[in-house]
């Protein structure tokens, strides 16, 4: 057991380090100057004559005058100590900047997931269970139609309808439960549509098997019993994979929603940091998102083992051989 856990931890650390390394070298070959961006975003120096400034001295102060490999070594050393460095623009610790915006993103992701999972299962069941062909067709069409819509367009539509026209919810901000409703609804509907598409395909495949179509009905099992007792478990395997990817998307890919609804979060911080050439903040975000993906993948593996006893037996056999 200790060997298995150690191997998984080693792979997780390798993934995070690989993501950090790739992002580091890609960012440093892109055009842009963090020092010039810092001057342009500082009130006291915004109108100063850049030509009269000692840019080399400013670069030396933030460590950008060192060689590329020295900067990389310093970054990896800090990463091993849990120190993500300081912002090149504001000089604030990166961990503090992340701690300020992470709760907003996590809350938004959690609320949208809590709503999207049951809604996705409901749409999938409605697409394969009712005798009415119209209900099945509608439940199958809605997810495909919603996935094809641009997220920003849906967000703007929600703002116009529920905020500007009806005045039910605020159109922007990150404070209070009311400001969470519209962005969470946009993301929840998108997640539900993605989950429903995968589940519908899986359930149709399972319902078409010999046991579900012939053997179980011959034994007197009803359609709902067959669906929930025999088909739903097997159809949930691809759902788990999409669920894990969806969590990663919500943590790092909510940029459009955060911009439309003027919310503070990881996605918006990423965009602002890239625009300001704030390399340390971008790298800190990469580390956090890579670690999140690693954790989510581990949870998905656990979910697979819970759904399929064969995987548990295989893991036990592998551990015994080790």
TrEMBL record:
Compartments where found: Cell membrane
Entry membrane topology: Multi-pass membrane protein
SUPFAM superfamilies on file: MetI-like
Coiled-coil residue spans: none
A cellular component term, taken from the record's GO annotations: plasma membrane
Residue intervals passing through the bilayer: 12-30, 106-126, 138-160, 180-200, 237-261, 281-307
Record keywords, A-Z: Cell membrane, Membrane, Transmembrane, Transmembrane helix, Transport
GO aspect biological process, one term: transmembrane transport
InterPro entries: MetI-like, MetI-like_sf
Boundaries of every ABC transmembrane type-1 domain copy: 102-300
Location (main, coarse): membrane
Family statement: Belongs to the binding-protein-dependent transport system permease family.
Protein name, as recorded: ABC transporter permease
Native species: Saccharothrix syringae
